[in-house]
Amino acid sequence: MSSDDFHPVKRTAPAIKGRGTANNTQGRFAITAVELDESDEPVVAPQTEVRYEYAKSIITRNQSPDVPFNLSVNPYRGCEHGCIYCFARPSHAYLDLSPGLDFETKLSAKVNAPALFEQQLSKASYQCQPIAIGINTDAYQPIEKDLRITRQLLEIALLYKQPVSIITKSNLILRDLDIIRELAAQRLFHAAVSVTTLDNDLKRRLEPRTASGQTRLNVVKAMTDAGVPVTVLASPMIPFVNDSELEQIIHAAADAGAQSAHYMLLRLPHELTELFEGWLRTHVPDRADHVLNRIRDMRGGALNDAQFGRRMTGQGIFADLIRQRFHVALKKAGLCNERLTPLDCSQFRVPPKTGDQLGLF
């Protein structure tokens, strides 16, 4: 992949503060490293660039027992939301790009995803299972507004009666409420809205290009009012950063009409350890060591624990305390942490080919 493969988007960051990180650390597979001379010159905010990718396949099989789906579709690589804690950042190393600033400024859009999705659903060997859309990076990040890949995937899902779910931080999902409402009415759709913080100042630093917490709660209400099953994810919980908001988020989710709520503990795989520590020392330097030490307390002495069964919730007394707080808050709010009603795979069908289907593309 060369820089010529990227095409500038007409959207530039006004300052580096509009990005999750200024760190463009090399990925773990890089053969060479570039070191820049120190300079007093201000950092120039990079443009967002998009590479148009033609994928070979689009449905990915998940091997983790910690998540409630086996199949997923990711229309984009990288994410302009810029969440510093995003567990998907290290995946940019596979593209020989940095999990840091490159992850949120050099994006890939799988423009043939809708055609591939329909092709794979049409195979005689395909056995219908619920498919999660946009798990690695947000399917409703800003470039979706123009590219509309996620909307096309939903149109195909409705055509095939293929059950799908989506996790997002964006109110752009409401653009597609016409399709989502139809899917939900046929028990073919679940939504999960991630609410990390209700503090707008923290949001601007932690996840700079996402919708505000209140806007996300408004999304929950709008979708609930439309008959769409919604859960809220209070994630990730970060000690001494946003964990004090756990109860507030749970109660706000209940008030917005969410059917259930869940939480996950911060994960720091691979390069994310360095990136997140850099963020702490820039934005909360007085608490940085406290945060890192508490994470170690919940990760068996390390900053990350990839062990299935523990990586989402941690271990030790502090992890147990968050777990207890979560369940008490759920009970007080009248919510549950059970999975939403299972989606219905029995309706799946491969529709007859007609000229009308070409209109999807």
From TrEMBL:
Residues 1-23 are annotated as: Disordered. InterPro entries: Elp3/MiaA/NifB-like_rSAM, MJ0683-like, rSAM, rSAM_sf. Pfam families: Radical_SAM (PF04055). Keywords: Iron, Iron-sulfur, Metal-binding. SUPFAM superfamilies: Radical SAM enzymes (SSF102114). The keyword Glycoprotein does not apply. Residues 69-297 form the Elp3/MiaA/NifB-like radical SAM core domain. One of its GO terms (molecular function) is catalytic activity. CDD domains: Radical_SAM (cd01335). NCBIfam families: rSAM_PA0069 (NF033668). PANTHER family: SLR0285 PROTEIN. This is Radical SAM protein.
